[in-house]
Specification:
There is one protein chain. The protein is an alpha/beta fold and about 325 residues long. It has 2 domains: about 5-115 and about 220-330, Periplasmic binding protein-like II (D-Maltodextrin-Binding Protein, domain 2), CATH 3.40.190; about 120-215, 3-Layer(aba) Sandwich (D-Maltodextrin-Binding Protein, domain 2). The protein is about 45% helix and about 15% strand. The protein has 16 helices and 11 strands.
Length: about 325
């Protein structure tokens, strides 16, 4: 996207914001919203949009919402967004960056959704105790342009290995706990609650989380929007992010209530959801995107060959649009 087009789009967005209430935590007048029809894509796991869906907040506010699940993550989700089939989505931050690097202009990153979120687990009988032990073993969850694979690449490089040193299999999160238990794979790089399912069952051990591998908090999830939708309906984008912020607040302030809703919404057990948060396999976050943190993450992805962009800073500046979340947070 050329700079003059980006400038024009931001100017149009800023002008539309002039009529939006700025109070954090408030909800816009439903009668004044520019649209009440939403199409939202998501991975059925532990992130705030899953909680928003489980609590029916959008529907209760008068929105007509079509929810679409993408069990294979951001690549098919972004394809649906490019086709105009969905307006919003939620996926792994690093996966979003990887797809955006290959398909610029398809999406805008507008809010954080989770941190950590990805973990490497190994079947107890596999003999795998560390990343170095993965050599020659069957590892589930290895799919191009996804956060688990990027995290695994980082871990392998730290152990002087590459993806060529393992037997990687493209699998979906919901299938992995049972596959590990029956010995189809020796390890899996996977999401919550699927990592928790195999850990609480006692069939696997935790090797490392994404944040362990990264050496600091790993930006684990984010909310995206179709740029054309955001330009046409900035008021609705801000309103949706108010519900995302509400979900984050519920996770922090009333975790038991949030965990119960997430368990029902993601069709997993309350034990798995509670385990995921209590053991920091996933953590709530602030919705306002931190461009510096995302540039650092993208820089690491570039270093490991997960993304190829000439200028990381310019890439993130084009992808990340914090102005919507700033209206919610007041920052």
């Amino acid at each position: 996207m050329k700079t003059n087009l980006v400038t024009a789009a931001l100017a149009a967005t800023a002008a539309a914001f002039a009529t939006i209430p700025a109070q954090a935590g408030s909800t816009a007048d439903p009668a004044k919203l520019t649209t009440h029809k939403l199409s939202i894509g998501m991975f059925p796991a532990l992130r705030p949009l899953a909680l928003v869906r489980a609590e029916h907040w959008l529907e209760d506010a008068g929105y007509d919402v079509e929810w679409h699940e993408f069990i294979n993550g951001i690549p098919p989700e972004s394809a649906a967004m490019a086709a105009g089939s969905i307006d919003f989505g939620e996926a792994d931050t690093s996966g979003i960056e990887q797809v955006a690097a290959r398909s610029p202009g398809v999406m805008w990153y507008i809010a954080n959704g989770a941190s950590n979120y990805v973990a490497l687990v190994a079947r107890k009988e596999s003999g795998i105790k560390s990343v170095a032990d993965l050599k020659g073993h069957k590892v589930a969850g290895v799919s191009p342009n996804t956060a688990p694979t990027a995290v695994l690449q980082m871990a392998l490089k730290q152990a002087n290995l590459t993806l060529k040193d393992i037997q990687g299999f493209a699998t979906s999160g919901p299938t992995e706990p049972a596959a590990l238990e029956r010995g189809a794979y020796d390890a899996a790089i996977t999401y919550v609650p699927y990592s928790a399912e195999t850990l609480t069952a006692g069939t696997s051990i935790l090797v490392k989380t994404a944040s362990d591998i990264y050496g600091k908090t790993w930006p684990g999830g984010g909310v995206i929007v179709r740029p054309d939708f955001a330009k046409a309906h900035p008021d609705v984008v801000v309103d949706l992010l108010r519900y995302v912020a509400r979900a984050e607040a519920l996770l922090k302030d009333k975790p038991d209530e949030a965990y119960k809703a997430l368990a029902e919404g993601t069709k997993t057990s309350l034990e798995n959801v509670t385990y995921s948060y209590k053991n920091k396999l996933v953590e709530p976050t602030e919705i306002l995107p931190d461009k510096d943190a995302l540039k650092e993450q993208a820089g690491v992805l570039k270093q490991y060959g997960a993304i190829k962009v000439p200028d990381v800073s310019a890439f993130i500046d084009e992808l990340v649009h914090p102005e919507f979340a700033a209206k919610v947070t007041g920052k």
